[in-house]
């Protein structure tokens, strides 16, 4: 065969082989790219699902947070007026302030009655009558926690304290109000605290618990297994508010040398301050922080030895 033809055949063979190789490589490359693309697409789809879920969770949180804040209309509906001027911590209320606080709470009980709690639980004297009886029964029967760590029976009694004192119906009424009226519970608690702490300058028909009894309940919630267990079953907002007002009572008891069990208000205040700073949806968050910082600073000053 002519040498020229041999060279041509070899060249053609090389070209065909090269073409086949390139084609195979491109098919392999395309297959690899498709696999990679499919994997990336799958990962993107999964990430999109996760992000959508996170977005939904954030929207739910924003909705919950929105519901924590009261509109002026809801404030007026529950308390009969704007109560921002009544949310203070004066040691004494003047006659006009006293009347305003009591009228706001009277409106609050009417609001609860109008929302059906009296009819639902057959409260003959309405929610205000229920409140008076509840306050009286709790004042007469403060929790016994002095030996809860060593006496199992006492522990069980403490754990069931409210159900024993208030009964099943009474406990359920309070539970329903706390769960269904979350948005108005915070200002209501502020007004109740005003009334209880100013019982001398602002007398009421119901007998308010003395400071010693208040202290016993404050200690119960802040420093006993039974009280902490009870609060842990409530939502975080209610738990924080209960601890805050309990700590205010301890502060008052400390100032009057009635801190009978030596509860350290500084430690409790530091823990609660962190929670409040990181909690959304508290109406009077700034006020709470200011008072807790006062407790911490006052306690620190007391710890500074005299020169």
What can you see in these coordinates?
Helix content is 75%, strand content 0%. With 307 residues, it is mainly alpha-helical. The chain has two domains: 1-68; 72-303, no CATH class. The chain is elongated and about 120 Å long. The protein starts with a helix and ends with a helix.
Q: Which percent band covers the strand fraction?
A: under 5%
Number of domains: 2
Helices, by number, come to: 13
Q: Summarize the amount of helix as a percent range.
A: over 70%
Through-space gap between termini? 119 Å
Radius of gyration: 34 Å
Uncertain stretches of 5 or more adjacent residues: 303-307
**Largest sheet geometry:** none
Instruction: Please provide the ordered H/E string of secondary-structure elements.
Output: HHHHHHHHHHHHH
Number of strands: 0
Structural class: mainly alpha
Rounded mean pLDDT score? 79
Overall geometric form: elongated
For the structure shown, list the relevant keywords.
307 residues, mainly alpha, 2 domains, 75% helix, elongated, disordered C terminus
Write the layout of secondary structure elements.
Elements: H1 3-68, H2 72-79, H3 95-114, H4 117-120, H5 126-140, H6 152-159, H7 161-180, H8 182-197, H9 211-223, H10 225-232, H11 236-255, H12 265-277, H13 285-303
Helix pairs in contact: 3-8, 5-7, 6-10, 9-10, 9-11, 11-12, 12-13
In short:
The protein is mostly helical.
């Amino acid at each position: 065969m002519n040498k020229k033809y041999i060279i041509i055949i070899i060249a053609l063979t090389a070209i065909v082989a090269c073409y086949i190789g390139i084609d195979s490589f491109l098919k392999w490359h395309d297959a690899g790219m498709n696999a990679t693309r499919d994997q990336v697409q799958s990962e993107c789809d999964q990430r999109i699902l996760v992000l959508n879920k996170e977005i939904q969770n954030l929207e739910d949180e924003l909705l919950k947070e929105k519901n924590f804040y009261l509109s002026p209309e809801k404030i007026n509906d529950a308390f009969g007026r704007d109560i921002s001027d009544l949310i203070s911590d004066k040691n004494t209320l003047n006659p006009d302030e006293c009347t305003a606080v009591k009228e706001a709470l009277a409106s609050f009980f009417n609001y609860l009655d109008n929302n059906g709690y009296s009819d639902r639980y057959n409260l003959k004297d309405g929610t205000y009558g229920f409140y008076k009886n509840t306050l009286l029964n709790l004042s007469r029967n403060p929790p016994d926690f002095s030996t809860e760590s060593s006496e199992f029976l006492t522990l069980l009694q403490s754990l069931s304290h409210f159900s024993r004192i208030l009964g099943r119906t009474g406990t359920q009424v309070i539970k329903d109000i706390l769960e269904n009226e979350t948005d108005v519970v915070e200002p209501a608690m502020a007004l109740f605290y005003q009334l209880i702490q100013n019982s001398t300058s602002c007398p009421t028909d119901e007998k308010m618990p003395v400071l010693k009894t208040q202290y016993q309940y404050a200690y119960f919630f802040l420093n006993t297994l039974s009280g902490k267990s009870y609060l842990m079953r409530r939502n975080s907002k209610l738990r924080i508010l209960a601890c805050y007002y309990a700590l205010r009572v301890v502060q008052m008891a400390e100032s009057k040398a009635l801190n009978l069990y030596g509860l350290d208000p500084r430690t409790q205040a530091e823990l609660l301050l962190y929670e409040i700073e990181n909690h959304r949806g508290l109406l009077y968050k700034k006020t709470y922080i200011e008072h807790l910082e006062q407790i911490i600073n006052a306690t620190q000053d007391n710890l500074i030895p005299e020169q």
